[in-house]
Amino acid sequence: MDHLRRENEQVTEKLNELQMQDNDGQQDNFKVEGGRSQNPEIHQLHVKIQSAQKLYEKTTEMHKKVELTNTNVRDWLSRIIKKVDQ
Fold first, then answer.
1. Cα(12)–Cα(83) distance, rounded to whole angstroms?
2. Were 15 and a residue from 30, 33, 45, 74 both cysteine, which residue would form a disulfide, CB within 3.0 to 4.6 Å?
3. Model confidence over 8-28: pLDDT tens digits?
4. What angle do CA 78, 72, 68 make, to 5 degrees?
């Protein structure tokens, strides 16, 4: 998960840098029309960010499920050990 977070931060930083650059004084390069940036590199970064965020959300959800299962198994084993020890 940390890898995804770092990758997302790096892509976001690069996107911010590109948006701040004023190539030939034209701000029109960065305008978004129809949900897509006129600058293809910015659009690619947006797509990368979205896919990284989706993957991070899936990974986080899976982590929560694994933790819940781990807790349930640990509790179940604890009860079994108590019964065996009696």
1. 54
2. 45
3. 888 888 877 777 764 434 445
4. 145
- Measured CA to CA, the distance from residue 54 to residue 7 in angstroms comes to 13
User: Distance between CA 76 and CA 80 in Å, rounded?
Assistant: 6
Strand ranges for 1-86 from DSSP E: 32-33, 36-37
pLDDT tens for residues 31-56? 555 556 667 888 888 889 999 999 99
How far is Cα 76 from Cα 7, in angstroms, rounded to an integer?
A: 38
Kindly write down the DSSP assignment for every residue of 10-33, as one continuous string.
Answer: HHHHHHHHHHH--GGG-GGGG-EE
